[in-house]
Design goal:
The chain has nine helices and ten strands. It has about 270 residues and is an alpha/beta fold. Helix 4 packs across helix 5. It is elongated, with a radius of gyration of 24 Å. InterPro entries: 4pyrrol_Methylase_sf, 4pyrrole_Mease_sub1, 4pyrrole_Mease_sub2, rRNA_ssu_MeTfrase_I. Keywords: Methyltransferase, Transferase.
Length: about 270
Amino acid sequence: MSAPGSPMSKKNSTPTPRLRLAAPRGGHLLPGGGPAAKGTLHLIPVGLGDAPVDSWLPADARALAARLDTYIAENAKTARAFLKQVGAVRPIQEITIHTLEARTDASQLREWIKPLKAGAEIGLVSEAGCPAVADPGARVVDLAHAGGHTVKPWVGPSSILLGLMASGLDGQRFAFHGYAPVNPEERARQLKTWEQQSARANQTQMLIETPYRNGAMFGTLLASLRGDTRLCIARSLTTPTEWIRTQTIAQWKQGPAPDLDKQATLFLFLAA
């Protein structure tokens, strides 16, 4: 559009009428010109442990979670426990819970979110922490965006973010790898590769382990990484037994091993 007083504006003193596409009341237009669906996919965090729900989930998110009647969940059992915590307004057995697995077919996911086209609201929850972050729920979010639906993230606990915040390691460049190989030799090689990556890019490396193997992972970290590499152990985040400590590998070797048995733990390290 030309500015008032420019040669173009003087020449075309009568503006040319334009066709305007009206969005339906309460809606908006997609880039292609069609009306966007009014359904909403709510991304609702769940607890990392057994702490009271009001200590980690805001009141408005609890109220929203309590009234939804359809969920897509990584684990139906933990989803039902979460619904009891937030005080679901309808009987749990009347709430639809679709169990999401890494191998769930995309056509099934599309079927689950089809009610969004009619303006429905659906909750997405992980087994622990924030959905769609290192979690198969990302596929559901992607399909919701493809369908033009609203995606609403809610505030809540994320072990990755909380651990990174509390580690004192680089919070601008970081990578979360999930699980390291189970085989001891392969695990040691992978940790050394990640350490090289950390040194090259000044990048914090993060990983988790099955809780009963935490002790073995800690031992492999001490045996595989350089003495001046800093290692953070973030155990049982947001729970009464939360414990977080960052030291060099050399310092960790000098003291007693932390108690990590059967407790959710995030391991973070940054090479010097």
